[in-house]
Amino acid sequence: MKNAKPVANSKRIKVLNNKNFKAATKRGVVLLDFWALWCGPCKIIAPTLNEIADSQTDFMVAKVNVDHNQQLAQKFKVRNIPTMLILKDGKEAGRIVGVKTKRTILKEVDAVMAG
């Protein structure tokens, strides 16, 4: 399971881990999904995140597997998954917990980008 892939893959979703996280998130806006292979709701939200990643160029969509990157989950106090953070220049600017619609997610990201 060490090399477990995200539940659903878009070529535009970046897989982040403890090693590449800081460099990948230090500039711009990132929609970051904390997920796990065993998480049913994570499987439900995955196609929506793929659609967002495939249609957006203004921000990056990324995933962090909580089972393999517990330090990141702890750093951001992720207690439930799926949890999506909206990072702006490396800092948390928004948080979405649970399965949400594409419209709701994009509204939250747009608010961070506008602010």
UniProtKB/TrEMBL annotation:
Residues the record marks as active site: 39 (nucleophile), 42 (nucleophile)
Annotated positions for site Contributes to redox potential value: 40-41
Biological-process GO terms, alphabetical: cell redox homeostasis
Keyword flag Electron transport: yes
Site label Deprotonates C-terminal active site Cys, positions: 33
Gene Ontology CC annotations of this record: cytosol
CDD domains referenced in this protein's UniProt entry, alphabetically: TRX_family (cd02947)
Residues in Thioredoxin domain copies: 1-114
Cystine residue pairs: 39-42
Pfam families attached to this UniProt entry: Thioredoxin (PF00085)
Keyword entries, A-Z: Disulfide bond, Electron transport, Redox-active center, Transport
A single MF term (Gene Ontology): protein-disulfide reductase activity
Superkingdom per UniProt: Bacteria
Family from the record: Belongs to the thioredoxin family.
PANTHER family: GEO12009P1
Name by which UniProt lists this protein: Thioredoxin
Gene: trxA
